[in-house]
Amino acid sequence: MTTRETKEFDGITLERVREHVWEIPQEGEMRVPARVLASEPLLEQIGDDKTLQQLKNATHLPGITKHALCMPDGHQGYGFPVGGVGATDAEKGCISPGAVGYDINCGVRMMRTNLTYDDLKGKEEELVDSLFANVPSGLGGGGVVEEGIDTVEEILARGMDWALERGYATEADLAHCEDEGMRPDADPDAVSQKAKDRGKNQIGSLGSGNHFLEVQRVTDVFRPEVGEAYGLEEDQIVVLIHCGSRGLGHQTCTDYLRRIEKEHADLLEDLPDKELAAAPAGSELAEEYYGAMCAAINFAWVNRQLIMHRTRQVFARVFGRDWEDMEMELLYDVAHNIAKKETHTVEGEERELYVHRKGATRAFPAGHPEVPAAYRDVGQPVIIPGSMGAGSYVLRGGDESMGLTFGSTAHGAGRVMSRTQAKQEFWGETVQDELRDQEKIYVKAQSGATVAEEAPGVYKDVDEVVRVSDDLGIGDKVARTYPVCNIKG
């Protein structure tokens, strides 16, 4: 009998199952084993904070199946690790707001154009200034649309259908968004008045923190046939938008965490961390949270859609052409803080599960019925942003994703440094100057502190994160992009 290679971090032992797959064996009160998908360098970084303990804690969730999983970009989060995936039985398990996170449907969308990098040269500063002036960002209020509660409730119920009706979206935009931009299980009545009040002045706004709008150029296409299906080619200009449900989503998470603490204290007592707070599947509270979460998901899709609409208008002014002439079309929009009812095969049996993806991206392979028709033959697009100095990737859902990760992969580079530490290590203005002078990347933000918090040195190596995903076959490399202009809150 051969013994497996092991590694230990703060008393937690991981066994190497195979290349890039490490397992924390089931023991004690754990309901399933936990698995980390990482190369050795990434595992060292993942083991450097509380990620592994949080992952181990997640295995205590009622009804969790197969494994609790940590993607290659994993790092410490609130209760449940960022980069975490946990699938719980939709009938006998639970749904956990803590395993979704505060920024419900934080996600990314990429918009193609027919512009080349040469078309953009010389216009970088004009473009970054105009985007910054016209796309609301930063903490607090201010949005592309600022209307009453009735509008918020309509957005919560209808998602991007509302944007289409109002002229902010096209039919093609809906066809190229996860779930066509609308969760039918949304229940606006399950969203509190306080959450709606927080959202009404933030419809179409980036917010702050790690959220951004970035103009990029495609530097590499690794799978030409998939790149062609996605409409990507080298030297092309694309736009990446990263944000979520703003104060509305944050308040919704807070509301339900507090309610769970009151109404399901018994379940909470059985969990090693109260931040994993979960409602039992089938309970009134679980149904209400699912309806509220789906409504916040719809809000986030409309938020990103309105930012894209405003971006199209800015490009039209800067380049003196209609956005349609520049073929500014949505490639795809993916969510990465979400719990969805999905059917997966577990031990030969099809089961309905709540698949929690917190800082993880859905990555369904070719042929899956939930992949948009335009991409079903090649697989779902997956968009993985790196830091503002390192570039980003477009992947496609890999053939191994359903068996290994409940159809999931990483969502970004993943932090290696806290925001507080980053502000001690970096000076925002210096970061901006170096990016402009050395890399020809133009960054504009509400404050220098925001730039310092998001400096390239704060993040893991996105190339390594994507390499692991590609090697495992959960998300296959299609194209790489590199920043040209970046705006932040």
Describe the 3D structure:
With about 500 residues, the protein is of the alpha+beta class. The protein has a single domain (about 5-415, about 460-489), classed as Alpha-Beta Complex (tRNA-splicing ligase RtcB), CATH 3.90.1860. It contains 17 helices and 20 strands. It has helices at about 40-45, 50-60, 115-120, 125-135, 150-160, 160-165, 170-175, 195-200, 225-230, 245-265, 265-270, 285-320, 400-405, 420-425, 430-440, 450-455, 460-470, and strands at about 5-10, 10-20, 20-25, 35, 70-75, 80-90, 95, 105-115, 210-220, 235-245, 280, 330-335, 335-345, 350-360, 360, 380-385, 390-395, 410, 440-445, 475-489. The strands form 4 sheets. The protein has an 8-stranded mixed sheet, with helices on both faces. A hairpin with a 6-residue loop joins strand 5 (about 70-75) and strand 6 (about 80-90). Helix 4 (about 125-135) packs across helix 12 and helix 10 (about 245-265) packs antiparallel against helix 12 (about 285-320). The radius of gyration is 21 Å and the shape is globular. The termini are far apart. The relative contact order is 0.17. GO terms for molecular function: GTP binding; metal ion binding; RNA ligase (ATP) activity; RNA ligase (GTP) activity. Its EC number is 6.5.1.-.
